[in-house]
Design brief:
The chain has about 450 residues and is of the alpha/beta class. It has helices spanning about 10, 15-25, 35-45, 65-70, 75-80, 90-100, 130, 140-150, 185-200, 225-235, 300-315, 335-350; strands spanning about 50, 105-110, 150-160, 210, 240-245, 255-260, 280-285, 315-325, 355-360, 365-370, 375-380, 385-390, 395-400, 410-415, 415-420, 430-435. The chain folds into two domains: about 10-355, TIM Barrel (Alpha-Beta Barrel); about 360-435, Immunoglobulin-like. It has twelve helices and 16 strands. Helix 6 (about 90-100) runs parallel beside helix 12 (about 335-350). The longest helix is centred in the middle third of the chain and has 17 residues, at about 185-200. The two termini are about 45 Å apart.
């Protein structure tokens, strides 16, 4: 995937002002449609999504950066397409997993940095229908099932391309691909726009487009104005996010963060992003890989995944949790087990997550707050003692433990609100206190 891989060289480059101006030129007056604004609100309330990195790279079991990391040429890399035959891929199973884990949407790699299209694109034969024994369009199968089950589908599309001859001059990655020198940059951008047109016109209503890869050539003119206008014209409600690690440009509908939720103390990858007045999304993976990595079996614990979801929601952000299916099309069972366990937790505690916005207290080492109407949810992730002092939250009518309604004594003392936490109610994952206010 995109810079989901830490790439220090990319981060050390700065974007010249002239290039920055060229990126935004022509989109200064973007006005989202009413359908788009409604979609943003729905997206912001959904809180949780399933991210899927899957492509021909899964055959090698080394993650989605294998072509770059192993210094493979285009000619050598093309050979693995003939080994990609995901006969165990079951869209019903994948969508059922998304529902079981409590996700409202799925974001899947339609095209990753290797340029391989996971649908039968007409722009090139470098795609799953023309180059693999599978000969079918998995995006079509997944989209049809997602539509049936009320799950929104977002398409991840890499603007970076290690395979296409017109992606020239080369960026900071893919230097060993042995492509011919020369190429027409604008012709490549036309190619990318035409592929996006196929995705936006051939699969019914989609949730949006998740772009990635601009960091590979930060000073290039990516013609964002044309690309964003194309997307919004074809599907006004479709949301655009771009994982470029900069402040969002006009035409984008949500802001993406990697690994860390938005706010102070984010990793270097997100440090130049700032905070826009847009919905946020934080992407992370169940293990240390995005694409399937046969040697990485260190799946994070259920408690850690739940806390990551809670911390993202407390930062007013969605949480997009990634899995990398095997080349046969199966989601690794240890990852699926963890995702279902998160879903079990959400079935009990989801009202304190879904539909919320960031609460009145900014994220703290002990935990986070969220708010939905008159209810403030205090998520205590790091329990320390029987008292918790918050900045004053006015007009509290009562305080209770979310899980069972046990009253929580509280005092308003000057500029603080003090909660006295019953030791018997300590939850080792997340102790949730509900503050019912009068709504003011």
């Amino acid at each position: 995937m995109a810079a989901m891989k830490q790439f220090p060289l990319a981060l050390s480059l700065t974007l010249p002002l002239v290039a920055l101006a060229s990126l935004v030129l022509g989109v200064q007056h973007y006005r989202p449609s009413n359908e788009n604004l409604d979609a943003r609100a729905g997206f912001q309330s959904s809180k949780f999504g399933l991210f899927i990195h899957w492509g021909v790279y899964s055959v090698l079991g080394k993650g989605e950066w294998v072509m770059n990391d192993d210094k493979m040429t285009v000619a050598d890399y093309e050979k693995i397409a003939g080994q990609f035959d995901p006969t165990e891929f079951d869209p019903v199973e994948w969508v059922a997993l998304a529902r079981d884990m409590g996700a409202a949407y799925i974001t899947i790699t339609a095209k990753d940095h290797d340029g391989f299209a996971m649908w039968g694109t007409k722009q090139s034969d470098w795609n799953v229908v023309d180059r693999t024994p599978y000969r079918r369009d998995p995006l079509r199968l997944l989209t049809d099932e997602a539509h049936k089950r009320g799950i929104k589908l977002f398409f991840y599309y890499s603007q970076l391309d290690w395979h296409h001859p017109d992606y020239f001059p080369l960026g900071i990655s893919g230097q060993s691909s042995a492509r011919a020198s020369g190429g027409d940059w604008n012709r490549y951008l036309d190619y990318a726009d035409n592929q996006l047109r196929e995705l936006l016109t051939g699969y019914g209503e989609i949730g949006g487009i998740w772009l990635d890869g601009m960091w590979d050539k930060p000073s290039a003119n990516w013609r964002l104005d044309r690309t964003y206008a194309l997307i919004h014209s074809l599907q006004p409600a479709a949301l655009i996010g771009n994982n470029h690690h900069m402040k969002p440009f006009e035409g984008e509908d949500f802001q993406i963060f990697e690994k860390d939720p938005p706010g102070p103390g984010v990793a270097d990858l997100n440090s130049k992003s700032g905070l826009a007045n847009l919905p946020f999304e934080t992407a992370d993976s169940v293990n240390g890989s995005w694409g399937y990595n046969a040697s990485n079996n260190e799946v994070k614990g259920t408690a850690d995944l739940i806390r990551s979801l809670v911390r993202a929601a407390g930062s007013d952000s969605n949480f997009l949790l990634n899995v990398g299916p095997t080349p046969s099309g199966k989601i690794p069972p240890e990852a699926a087990e963890r995702l279902r366990a998160v879903g079990t937790w959400l079935r009990k505690y989801g009202d304190s997550i879904y539909g919320t916005r960031g609460g009145p207290v900014k994220p703290q080492p002990w935990g986070v707050t969220m708010q939905n109407g008159p209810r403030v949810y205090v998520h205590i992730l790091d329990w320390a003692g029987d008292e918790l002092t918050l900045p004053r939250i006015p007009n509290i009518q009562r305080a209770t433990i979310f899980a069972n309604g046990t009253p929580v004594p509280f005092q308003q003392v000057g500029t603080t609100t003090m909660l006295r936490l019953p030791a018997s109610e300590h939850d080792p994952i997340d102790t949730i206190v509900v503050l019912k206010t009068d709504g003011n």
